[in-house]
Every structure is written in C-alpha cells, then in structure tokens.
Amino acid sequence: MNENEYMKDIRKIAQTYSGPLDASELIERAGRARFALLGEASHGTSEFYTHRAALSKRLIEEKGYTFIAVEGDWPSCYALNRYIKGHAGTHAREALNDFARWPTWMWANQEIAEFAEWLRSSNAGKPEEEKVGFYGIDLYSLWESLNELLRYFESRGGEELEAAKRAFECFEPHGGDEQSYGVASSLYGEGCEEEVIDLLRRLQDKWKVTPMQDREHALSAELNALAIHNAENYYRTMIRYDAESWNVRDRHMVQVLEKLMAFHGESARTIVWEHNTHIGDARATDMRDEGMVNVGQLLRENYGDDVYAVGFGTYEGTVIAGTSWGAPAQEMTVPRAMRGSWEELLHRLGPEDKLLLFPANDPALDEAIRGHRAIGVVYHPESERGNYVPTCLSKRYDAFIYIDRTKALSPLVIESVRA
GO annotations under biological process (predicted)? Predict the structure, then answer.
C-alpha cells in the first residue's frame, strides 16, 4: 500500500484533538479497562506529562481508577506516594528531592510537582483505602532498595534484619557499581542470588497479615525486595544478553503491577505511565524479531480487553535529554519527523493535533507498518534515523494522541546551560 492510501485510511479515523477535556470518547473506552496505559515518545516532553496528568484526573474522577504506576524507582516514588496521601512533607518539591538518580528530570519536574499537588488535594479527607497512590514499578533501585530494607528491619529487629545485612554485605564490595556487580556475578560466579531470594521469601505477602495502619509499609518492603531480586538478575543478565535483560525488566514491571492490583483489591484499576516502547504492544514492532517482550504485550496476553493502551507522538519541538548516560540535562531540538514516518504522515494531513481511536481488526490499518519515533533519555538529534521503530500503529495501541509541536518539560534543577 502506498502513502496516499495510508493517509486516506488515517484520515477516516483521525479527529482533531483539542486536549484531554474534550477526549470523552477516549475516556469512555479507557474507562472500561482495568489497565489504562498512557505512553510517551520521550522522557522529556512537557505535553506528554501534562496531557497524561489531565487524562489521569478524568480517569480517577469519572471512572474510579485507584492508583498510578510509573516508569520510576520504587523508593523515590514511594516517598512521593506518602506525600500525595498526606503522610509526609508540606510541598511536592520536598518529596521530589528523593529522585536523585539520573535522569533526575524524568520525575523531578514542574509538571509532576503540579500533578502531585492535585493528587494530594484530591486525596485530602478520604479514607486511607480510597486514596489514590503513586508507585514506581522499575528495577534500577538495587542499592536504594537495600538501604530502605535495612532501615525497615532496623526498626523491627529479628531474623529479617540479619537476612537484610547478609544481602547488603554481599553487594557491598561493588560499591554501588551495577556493572561491577554484573561482571562479577555473570562471569565469575560471585553473585548474591541466594541472599536476595532468601530476603524476598521472608517478605512474600506479609502485608496480608499486617495491621491496616502498617500494610502499605509492609507492601513497600516486599516490593523493595522484589526490586533487589530482579535488579540482581537484570545486571547479571545484561552482561551477556541485552534482549533478555530488557525482558527481565519489563516482566518485573508486570509483577509489580500485579502485586499492586492484589494490594488494592478486586475493584483495583491502574493508570500506567511509561514510554511507548514499554506500553505499546511489542508484537506490533520489530522488537518481536529480537525476542523482546514488553509491558503492553504481557498485559494484553494476560488480561485481554481489560487493557487499553494510548500512545503519544510529535512532529517537532524541543525535549530534555542527555548526550550520554549520566550526562547533564540539556534542552535539545526535536527535528521535523522523518519523511514517511507515522508522525510525518499525520503532519501532512494538517498541522492540528489529532486523536486516533483505532477500530478493532481493521484490515487496512493492521497491515500498515511505518517508522514511529522513540526518543530516550540519551538523544542525538543529528542522527535521527536510528530513533524510528517499525510499527503497526493500530496493533501497537488502542488509541494514539498526536501533538504536532511540543516543548521541553521543566526540570526542577537544570544541570547544565541549555544547548
């Protein structure tokens, strides 16, 4: 099928998108699911954050969604969760100081601070079990989670404290260096797998028999242990198998989501904020050829129509990113989308923002594969071609929000002079 035919098919379903307040049909469709997956094409674009926040407010208020899960570390997100539920702090910025791991701008930004204030206000006066939570489902927090567990058990003592100390002592020689641990465990058999399995076993489902006022702390302890367990596996695996280390990470995210759903009960419903590469079904991209799975695929396989995935994209603008891992944050230009990509075709239809609500089993759209831009925390605008993922848009997402021109988000701390 040529580009003109693709554009005819897109034009049939594309509608002008004037923002989340007018996205009632999208809210109605997502509102039927238990998992509303809201993506982003970068980790540094303001509109992706503000539009997801506004959509999330509607899903919470109108459809009864019970918690938000994000592509962030458990310990730092749990500190923000405590603030949002009114248990700590006087301002969101205080809680956001816990996001000290690079890339700090991903969650420590003005857009999240404003959303956190809304969540705290919305939760005020509600019974504890009705307050909307905010949790991190990623696994990069190996060392932070170890420290959190030590603090948790130090206040309780007993055999669990000794188990936590054994795990800490096993990792301690690597001095917080994940690559050092990965090499030692993968190549020389000097891993800590037994220690972390023991730690997780001791905490498994303990929240179920914990007094109500301490249940979430008990859950937090278990999920810190789960993060340590899967991070250990992730860093051990990534030394030899890049694709499998990706799979370890996304399977961990699904494990955490399922734990959170069990914790919140039978009526639980979650809004998930992650990059498109995690929430958009991997089977509709070339990730499948590499043997990679992701959150969107795994949830669809397990829960079918209870999953509703919304992707995001842009034609041009600015973004916050770094030139290498750990590099200072910069405001960079996002060049016009590559000719023939999904973003460029949508721009060619007209410069207005657009919402695509994909019909089920559309023969024409389901065969359309085009490049779809994905910008990571490391970005090189001058070499854009490698940022496009071959994608069947209608199979990857249930809906797609296209914002023609976007701007960089607002980090709370600018780490360098803007480029």
Answer: response to antibiotic
SS percent in the chain: helix, strand, coil, step 5? 55, 15, 30
Region for residue 38 given its phi and psi (left: phi exceeds 0; alpha: psi -120 to 50; beta: otherwise) = beta
Tens-digit pLDDT profile for residues 320-353: 999 999 999 999 999 999 999 999 999 999 999 9
Mean pLDDT of the chain: 92
Beta bridge partners of 357: 399
Query: 47 pLDDT exceeds 90?
Result: yes
Cα–Cα dist 373/106, whole Å = 18
Q: Is the dihedral of CA 105, 111, 113, 116 positive or negative?
A: negative
CATH code at 1-62+276-411: 3.40.1660.10
3-state secondary structure of 366: helix
- Report how far residue 249's alpha carbon sits from residue 241's, in angstroms, rounded to the nearest whole number: 13
CA–CA distance, 80 with 66 (Å, rounded to integer): 16
pLDDT band of residue 167 (cuts 50, 70, 90) is: confident
Could you state, in order of their start, the residue ranges of all structural domains in the chain? 1-62+276-411, 147-240
Higher confidence at residue 164 or residue 6?
A: 164
Mapped onto helix, strand or coil, the DSSP state of residue 321 is strand
Query: Counting beta carbons within 10 angstroms of the beta carbon of residue 37, is it exposed (0 to 12), middle (13 to 18) or buried (19 or more)?
Result: buried
| H-type alpha helices, 124-270 | 142-154, 159-171, 178-188, 193-203, 215-238, 242-264
* 121 CB burial (10 A radius; 0-12, 13-18, 19+): exposed
